[in-house]
Specification:
The protein is an alpha/beta fold and 349 residues long. The chain has 2 domains: 2-148 and 292-344, Alpha-Beta Complex (Quinone Oxidoreductase, Chain A, domain 1), CATH 3.90.180.10; 152-288, 3-Layer(aba) Sandwich (Rossmann fold). Helices cover 27% and strands 25% of the residues. It is built from 13 helices and 16 strands. The chain has helices at 39-45, 94-97, 128-131, 141-144, 150-160, 177-186, 201-209, 223-229, 246-255, 276-279, 296-305, 323-331, 333-336, and strands at residues 2-8, 11-16, 28-36, 56-57, 62-69, 81-84, 122-125, 132-134, 169-173, 193-198, 214-217, 236-241, 256-264, 285-288, 314-319, 340-344. Strands 3, 5, 6, 7, 8, 15 and 16 form a 7-stranded mixed β-sheet that branches. The protein has a 6-stranded parallel β-sheet with strand order 11-10-9-12-13-14, with helices on both faces. Helix 5 (150-160) crosses helix 6. It is globular.
Length: 349
């Protein structure tokens, strides 16, 4: 089969690899229709994730068709079209029982990290019963790849962690795929004000199209003043950080209202300052998490009912043979006005 393989820091190649086989009774082998590239894949490509070794097939997002099932998998059938969750979950360990499947003792983030991932024509999925989700016929396969990771991350680590409430005010710092997912899922909770912040005017325009009440370019000199003015100087009830650099986390600390919540979603590669001298008496909370993907069934039901329209998030798609170009596009997303970049293995939906 063809696969996108991480061959060393800064290097990815389309290579021939053996098709995966069932290794445990709880496994499934899935034939990919579409995969997508995540920011975490770029961290691996840079060499920032030492646990991901050269020779690894990348990817933890995708939609495909079940080809083979282990003898213990009874909830799926060969031929089912399924969403592959970014997190695999055994459902029985102490972390899964607490709803923290990101830290599953034999699962969690393993695809494209510890075992070969989804950017290939076939993938072996451990713990298939809880890690694969059947797709309704009405759901578009390519659009659904955003529900593998970006949408549960935006909802769980962003919206729910930030306690978005009806009538509340929300600011999202970072208009990438996860920030946009946070915007769309925040609107399900009917806040009175949702504001998107980013440096990229094209992404801010997309945010307005997706329902942001206001947008602010964080590169302008008076960005902080503009943002606070939207709340009459009170700050925001829910502040979602979706970038992962010190400057954006600093901005979030400046924007949170008394009694508000900061939800950190971005992946931070360096330390940040926590301004307790300014925050200690404001009755705020700060929450950070790795996505557990427990909301995936709920998100798929919302898609099926038409209450969650995610089609605009996948902006670019390439065949597997052009996987290196797909990565280049995602690495220079602003230049290409790209959000999610899909890799296609079949034209079928």
């Amino acid at each position: 089969m063809k696969a996108l393989v991480y061959t060393g820091p800064g290097m990815i190649e389309v290579l021939d690899r053996p098709r995966p086989v069932i290794q445990a009774p709880t496994d499934a082998v899935v034939r990919l229709l579409h995969a997508s590239i995540c920011g975490t894949d770029l961290h691996i490509l840079k060499g920032d994730v030492p646990t991901a070794k050269p020779g690894l097939i990348l990817g933890h997002e995708g939609v495909g068709v079940v080809e083979e099932l282990g003898e213990s998998v009874h909830s799926l059938r060969v031929g089912d079209r399924v969403l592959i969750s970014c997190m695999t979950a055994c459902g029985a360990c102490k972390f899964c029982r607490r709803g923290i499947s990101a830290h599953c003792e034999t699962g969690g983030w393993v695809l494209g990290h510890h075992v070969d991932g989804t950017q290939a024509e076939y993938v072996r999925v451990p713990h298939a019963t809880l890690s694969l989700h059947p797709l309704a016929a009405s759901i578009d396969s390519r659009a659904a790849v955003a529900v593998s990771d970006a949408f549960p991350t935006g909802l769980e680590c962003g919206v729910l962690s930030a306690n978005v409430q009806p009538g509340g005010s929300v600011v999202i710092v970072g208009a990438g795929p996860v920030g946009m997912a946070a915007l769309l899922t925040a609107r399900l909770y009917t806040p009175s004000l949702v504001v998107m912040v980013d440096l990229d005017e094209a992404r801010l325009e997309t945010a307005r199209q997706l329902g942001a009440h206001a947008t602010v370019n964080s590169g302008v000199a008076d960005a902080r003043a503009r943002l606070l003015a939207l709340t009459e100087g009170q700050g925001f009830d829910s502040v979602i950080e979706a970038v992962g650099i010190p400057a954006t986390f600093d901005l979030c600390q400046e924007l949170v209202a008394v009694g508000g919540r900061i939800a950190n979603v971005g992946v931070h590669g360096t330390k940040v300052d926590l301004h307790l001298d300014r925050l200690w008496d404001r009755n705020i909370s700060i929450h950070m998490a790795l996505v557990n993907a427990t909301t995936t069934p709920r998100l798929l039901r919302l898609m099926e009912s038409g209450e969650l329209e995610i089609g605009k998030l996948v902006t670019h798609n390439y065949p597997c043979s052009e996987g290196v170009t797909a990565y280049s596009t995602f690495q220079t997303a602003a230049q290409h006005q790209a959000l999610k970049v899909a890799i296609d293995f079949s034209s079928s939906n």
